[in-house]
Structures are given as structure tokens and as C-alpha cells.
Amino acid sequence: MLTAARRGDAAAAVEALGEHRLLCAHHAGPQGVRTTDSPLLTRELCDTGVTRAEEEVRVVGSEEEVRVVGSEEVVRPAVARRVVRASGLRQRLGSTPQGD
Asked: By three-state DSSP, how is residue 60 classified?
């Protein structure tokens, strides 16, 4: 089950995490909000959250600030979206991507 809960101000919630900006933890609760796609939601972020979750994935913030995975129409684009790195390291090393 993938859900999102409204727990006050999202900026305050992120600030409370300090240097740990991505928190993956188990927490139960039935609250859910309508889901939509987000360009910030990538395959890597989904993988990190989902593989560490035992029962659910929860994103904290207001409905306006946070749009969350919860349906196939959101999950498919998120899993297809990959992080694009612009460091130039691959080009400098002369390598090509493996498995892309």
C-alpha cells in the first residue's frame, strides 16, 4: 500500500530531518490523498522508499506540496523516469552506460 499523509508544513518536516533529507521508515496509518505524477519522483527514489518499506510508503507534506505514488498512472511514469546525471564523468572516462 502506498499512501501519503498530511502532517502539517512539509518544509518544517524536511527541516526536522536535519542532514537526513530522505527518511525511509515504517509507520502505520490509514490516511490517503489523491495521487498525481511528479517530475521529482524517479525510479531511484521509488526504489529506495519501496525496498525499505515493510508495509507502506508515506510522504509527509500538504496536498499542494506533495503529490504521491499510489496508482498505476503515477507508478509507471515514475519508474520509467531516471535520474539524469550531468557530472560528465562518464564522458571523461570514455565509457558507455551498461544495461540502459
From this structure: strand
Overall pTM surpassing 0.85 (yes/no)? no
- 3-class secondary structure, 3: strand
Length of the chain: 100
Determine the average pLDDT of the residues in 40-46: 70
Would you put residue 88 in left (φ > 0), alpha (ψ -120 to 50) or beta?
left
Four-CA torsion 12, 15, 20, 22, nearest 10 degrees: 40
Residues 6+ apart with CB under 8 A from 62: 6, 8, 9, 10
